[in-house]
């Protein structure tokens, strides 16, 4: 994908603050620190359009971006960060569910996981929500550069088994080497064009 433009539009918590639902939207979700910002920045060829390693504990916001005047990208707040205060954790679920339920332009969610981790309850719950709202999931395992080839194979088997997702449907990615960038873009385009 050739990137001509990529810009931040706005941050929101509630639907009235969302920008107009004018473009097909793809959201990005994952645990805090999973490498979500890095992945989006690689997709749009920008060093820090999405700010990396956001301070945990801040009010968590849904950030909207526009890419090539063609797609809306949404950076969803990360989940599962142990140090996040309870008050923030309590608002995360309703904010997420409202977004998934109400956003009519949403076409799919890229679910980002660390290849070194077995997916936990949060990932499984998230996939259930997506099924419930009939939103396609694009599962991506990132930080593949951190494991040897043989360990990557083992982890892919564990992750696909845990998620109940065919191994061939797990996209292998690395923000460091940019491996998988084309596959993620292809999956996004396929999802938008369904
Ligand atoms: P976020 O909290 O999910 O947005 O995660 P970030 O994108 O801020 O990444 C968290 C940390 O992991 C940062 O130190 C990144 O440099 C690092 N990181 C992210 N993706 C990769 C990757 O594919 N490979 C390696 N080696 N490090 C990565």
Tell me the layout of helices and strands.
Elements: E1 6-12, E2 25-30, H1 36-43, E3 62-67, E4 71-75, H2 86-102, E5 106-114, H3 121-132, E6 137-142, H4 149-163, E7 171-172, H5 181-192
Parallel strand pairs: 2-4, 2-5, 5-6, 6-7
Antiparallel strand pairs: 1-3, 3-4
Bound molecules: guanosine-5'-diphosphate.
Guanosine-5'-diphosphate is lined by residues 30, 32-38, 52-53, 78, 142-143, 145-146, 174-176.
Description:
- β5 (106-114), α3 (121-132) and β6 (137-142) form a beta-alpha-beta unit.
- The protein has one domain: P-loop containing nucleotide triphosphate hydrolases (Rossmann fold), CATH 3.40.50.300.
- It is of the alpha/beta class and 194 residues long.
- A 7-stranded mixed beta sheet has the order 1-3-4-2-5-6-7, sandwiched between helices.
- It has helices at 36-43, 86-102, 121-132, 149-163, 181-192, and strands at 6-12, 25-30, 62-67, 71-75, 106-114, 137-142, 171-172.
- Bound molecules: guanosine-5'-diphosphate.
- Residues 30, 32-38, 52-53, 78, 142-143, 145-146, 174-176 line the site of guanosine-5'-diphosphate.
- It comes from Desulfonema ishimotonii.
- Keywords: Cell cycle, Cell division, GTP-binding, Magnesium, Metal-binding, Nucleotide-binding, Septation.
């Amino acid at each position: 994908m050739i990137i001509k433009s990529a810009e931040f539009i706005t941050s929101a918590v509630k639907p009235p603050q969302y920008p107009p639902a004018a473009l097909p939207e793809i959201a990005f979700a994952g645990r805090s620190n999973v490498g979500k910002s890095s992945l989006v920045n690689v997709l749009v060829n920008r060093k820090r359009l999405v700010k990396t390693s956001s301070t945990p504990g801040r009010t968590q916001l849904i950030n909207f971006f526009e890419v090539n005047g063609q797609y809306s990208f949404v950076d969803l707040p990360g989940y599962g960060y142990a140090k996040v205060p309870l008050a923030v954790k309590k608002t995360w679920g309703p904010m997420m569910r409202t977004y998934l339920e109400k956003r009519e332009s949403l076409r799919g969610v890229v679910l980002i996981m660390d290849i070194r981790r077995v997916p936990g309850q949060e990932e499984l719950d998230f996939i259930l929500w997506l099924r419930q709202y009939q939103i396609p999931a694009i599962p991506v395992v990132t930080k593949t550069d951190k494991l040897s080839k043989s360990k990557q194979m083992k982890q892919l088997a564990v992750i696909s088994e845990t998620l109940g997702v065919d191994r061939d449907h797990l996209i292998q990615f690395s923000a460091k080497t940019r491996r998988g960038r084309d596959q993620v873009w292809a999956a996004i385009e396929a999802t938008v064009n369904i």
